[in-house]
Amino acid sequence: xxxxxxxxxxxxxxxxxxxxxxxxxxxxxxxxxxxxxxxxxxxxxxxxxxxxxxxxxxxxxxxxxxxxxxxxxxxxxxxxxxxxxxxxxxxxxxxxxxxxxxxxxxxxxxxxxxxxxxxxxxxxxxxxxxxxxxxxxxxxxxxxxxxxxxxxxxxxxxxxxxxxxxxxxxxxxxxxxxxxxxxxxxxxxxxxxxxxxxxxxxxxxxxxxxxxxxxxxxxxxxxxxxxxxxxxxxxxxxxxxxxxxxxxxxxxxxxxxxxxxxxxxxxxxxxxxxxxxxxxxxxxxxxxxxxxxxxxxxxxxxxxxxxxxxxxxxxxxxxxxxxxxxxxxxxxxxxxxxxxxxxxxxxxxxxxxxxxxxxxxxxxxxxxxxxxxxxxxxxxxxxxxxxxxxxxxxxxxxxxxxxxxxxxxxxxxxxxxxxxxxxxxxxxxxxxxx
Length: 434
Ligand code: UGA
Description:
This protein is an alpha/beta fold. The protein folds into 3 domains: 192 residues, 3-Layer(aba) Sandwich (Rossmann fold), CATH 3.40.50; 87 residues, N-(1-d-carboxylethyl)-l-norvaline Dehydrogenase, domain 2; 136 residues, 3-Layer(aba) Sandwich (Rossmann fold), CATH 3.40.50.720. It is 44% helix and 14% strand. It has 18 helices and 14 strands. It has an 8-stranded mixed beta sheet with strand order 3-2-1-4-5-6-7-8, sandwiched between helices. Helix 1 packs across helix 3, helix 5 runs parallel beside helix 6 and helix 9 packs across helix 12. The model has no long low-confidence stretch (mean pLDDT 96). The site of uridine-5'-diphosphate-glucuronic acid (UGA) has 21 residues, from helix 9 and helix 11.
């Protein structure tokens, strides 16, 4: 099939490259000439393991091209996939101006029947509104599809090529059949439904996963007080197939470009129909507070005298294997420390540059290695579970720290790892070790 994907962010780029990998002819379009130049030069404007190589092989095979020319791309394709950003507005609602603009441009370029599928996460009813917007600008026939995306950053290729399910919300049976044919090589678990339900499935899925995380984080906070171990509690719960083991890792809360944005948007969507989503409001509140779990521990350790201390921070991205720092809990933690007179020494394997370009936090010492950050620090806070951190020699780490205090916000280390060291070790929802 001939496919145009509009938007080369995470979702658009990964999907476009994977559709090409499946044997389709794909044109990826972006308004930003800088991104298209990088892609045409063989680079990738985002960090995603394996994506560069997959793009290169499909470009060589002539199945994948990158352009800023939306009109030309639309004319050559039967299927147009919209994957432009829908970032949150200050009130939490999704900003639909980019997707509206792209829809108008598609309409103006249309030269015959097209299937127009929306992969961007959009509030319920948006696909129908976009269809009517497109009809205002063209007399050509088209069908609308809601095609929500479930890939995770850092494992985006694996998630796209081996999805748990594909959701197709369709305005016609024939369009649903074409989209089913496109996705059947990926999975047989294809749910064909109406457009509004498909839009809702995306929000409900992300809200549910966020709920699992906030739930286990609250259980962790209680575990700390009653002397239980949340990793054991989660394991014990997870064997129940009705609960499942995933998304029960306690830590400093979820971040990234999806859960914070989509939970706020769903609260707004509910509000518009006079429904107060109380449970989800609490999920967001718990998540917001959970990042202070680390700060509270520091305050206890230093008897509320953080001023003048040097604290090392390991990890700036919202999770490992990505340079994405959007809504990363690390930002608020570091800002809080700096505001309280702490000298922060921070290190991340790849996200430091991104972090600095987004968050304007003065007075942080940006380090080039994990040990450099730890050098002479009064305590170390681990905020992102990069594999690199679990491989650090704890004997060496202990020697470079000014005092061997480790606050593990992601439960990376086990008791056995610390045997033979003098670490005072605090983690989330597990007994501390002295
Ligand atoms: C999330 C969803 O998992 C994807 O299915 C969805 O497609 C995507 O949002 C999206 O809407 O585009 P992503 O934000 O890339 O994907 O990252 P996740 O791996 O889901 O992690 C989100 C956050 O939750 C991270 O900060 C992570 O540290 C945290 N988390 C995750 C936990 O604290 N505990 C867990 O058990 C799992």
